[in-house]
């Protein structure tokens, strides 16, 4: 028969092994969910050389920086995340931003600038992965 001290030590040893396993498993599942939730499909956003003033109006765009990328939007809110690039525990990530009604979105990666013009009342999701910029007319963020 084991003493209470031996049982306590055994319980601590089991907890010492199970806690990291639980943390890794939990982190893995959260990051897989993040990848799935922010992988958004839809038709491509229209790309323009410069915003059409008849669509965007006279108001200046609002700019912000996320993961070293400079984004501009004509109006509305934004929500951005950095899902994992490869497997869920890989520290590499990419940027995904959802705009519920941006009218226009500019993306400056430092290498090049792309301007999307989704238009009035249309949602847009912009992804910047390995320097490549894409935009789809879809999203679930409501702002």
The backbone outline, from C-alpha atoms, is: elongated
**From the helix content, strand content and strand pairing, which structural class follows?**
alpha+beta
Low-confidence stretches are none
**Quantity of strands, as a count:** 9
Q: Give the terminus-to-terminus CA distance.
A: 62 Å
- Count of alpha/pi helices: 2
Helical content class: 25-40%
Major β-sheet profile: 5 strands, antiparallel
CA gyration radius, whole angstroms: 22 Å
| H/E element sequence | HEHEEEEEEEE
Give the averaged pLDDT, no decimals.
85
Strand order of the largest sheet: 1-7-6-3-2
Strand percentage: 25-35%
Topology of helices and strands:
Blueprint: H1 4-37, E1 47-48, H2 53-56, E2 62-66, E3 69-73, E4 79-81, E5 95-99, E6 103-108, E7 113-119, E8 124-129, E9 132-136
Antiparallel strand pairs: 1-7, 2-3, 3-6, 4-5, 5-8, 6-7, 8-9
């Amino acid at each position: 028969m084991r003493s209470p001290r031996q049982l306590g030590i055994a319980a601590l040893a089991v907890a010492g092994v199970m806690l990291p396993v639980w943390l890794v498993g939990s982190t893995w599942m959260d990051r897989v969910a993040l990848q799935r939730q922010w992988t958004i499909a839809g038709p491509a956003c229209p790309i323009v050389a410069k915003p059409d003033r008849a669509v965007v109006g006279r108001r200046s765009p609002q700019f912000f920086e996320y993961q070293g990328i400079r984004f501009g939007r004509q109006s509305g809110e934004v929500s951005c995340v950095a899902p994992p690039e490869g497997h869920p525990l890989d520290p590499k990530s990419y940027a995904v931003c959802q705009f519920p009604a941006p009218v226009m979105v500019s993306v400056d990666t430092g290498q090049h600038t792309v301007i999307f013009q989704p238009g009035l009342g249309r949602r847009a999701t912009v992804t910047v992965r390995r320097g490549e910029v894409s935009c789809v007319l879809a999203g679930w963020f409501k702002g």
